[in-house]
Amino acid sequence: MTKNKGPGLSIFTLAMLITVAIDSVRNLPATALFGTALIFFFVFSSIVFLIPAALVSAELASGWTDRGGIFHWVRLAFGEKQAFLAIWLQWISNLVWFPTILSFIAGTAAYLIDPTLGQNKYFLVSVILGTFWFLTILNLRGIHTSARFASFCAVTGLIIPIAFIIALAGIWIFTGKPIQIHFTASNMLPTLNNSENWISLTAIMTAFLGMELATVHIKDVRDPQKTFPKALYLSVIIILTTMILGSLAIAIVLPQKDINLVNGVMQAFTNFFAVYHISCVIPIIAVMLLLGSLGGVVSWIISPARGLLQAAQYGFMPEFLRRENKHGVASNLLILQALIVTACCMAFIFMPSINGSYWLLTALNTQVYMLMYIMMFMTGIYLRYKYPNQARSFKVPGKQWGMWLVGILGLIGCAITLVVGFIPPDGINVGTLFHYEMIFCGSIVAMVVPVIFFWMYKSSVAPKLFPTDDFGVETI
Questions:
Q1: Which pLDDT score, from 0 to 100, does residue 476 have?
Q2: What does the mean pLDDT of the chain come to?
Q3: Fold of 11-460
Q4: Contacts of 98 (CB under 8 A, 6+ apart)
């Protein structure tokens, strides 16, 4: 079994690659909308999703180090067609997610020019497309370049700004400034028969997507059997701490009705700085936040595409999409990805509000990605029985019952998110309910149906490139 003890991604670099992909200041305004109730939902979401996803990913990554990622795990458990479906769901869901994080970048950049531009659809689309194509070109230089850039961005543009806004909120409370939320038992424990409270799970679950993402780079990791579990543990701690405290910091200073999903973080910083008479710091913070968001996009551009390349190499896609450049990057696939993202950005033009566009794309991303997670949790359980003697340096505690418990918790979290994802929140203008549901359901179908054509291509056109491959596991 490959251990990759030579030069490769370290625990810290890998943890930063995972953290910057998941943890984002972009998510804070959406979760801040729920006030002190967000503490309950973060804890609940961690129990039924984040921690199960981290545990299952750690076991799968430490057990099969020759190849990593959702495609190879599901292929080993259920076969090639199901594996292609899983990696396709991961990849396509991110194409509709990119405009949301890029809109945050555009909204933050607007503060350096004119804050009112943050509500200008054409400004947003222009910045989104320019940024995404620039980062696509950067990713063409390979994973090591991307990882170094992501690590720098994680520290400079994520950890430092979130620590800063948490500190500002602490000073705000300590000096007796008025706060917009109340830390009472009734506020912190929401009424669960209220659909709006369950809708909040969509925003929080979205903030947790991607825990398994970096495992596709397993051959680039130093001693992956030990490195991946430690990096996952470290990233979970950082993600939970910064997300909960960062969301509360925004909720403390901004009234719920005034929180903007695109530039809510800069709204909060602006309010803090105005009161503390340090508004001159705004441009510096804006640049740091831009760096943090750029680092997150870098991780998401290259990792799902690399997973899809694995599927393409098994004959599910035409030869030109399997081509790699001298840096080992599927260059044609990244360019195709950028073209599709360009089309997805049109949601900002056709939806009645920017917040409505943002929510629609966020909900689509979450719904489709959750289908992939259902397959991942089922894979984790099934592989325990299919390959019981496969060496795993990390195993979910509790033997078979432990894996069943973790898997079922993850499946419950996925099921809840799938149900509530069809319900738009009352406070966001998404047009009529019929208009929203038609676009929402039609988009999900359009995202999933292409899988059938790639299955047909594999069966009728492409050769079976790997007729025998035991994937480095015991023979049964």
A1: 35
A2: 79
A3: Amino acid/polyamine transporter I (1.20.1740)
A4: 128, 132, 297, 300, 301, 341, 344
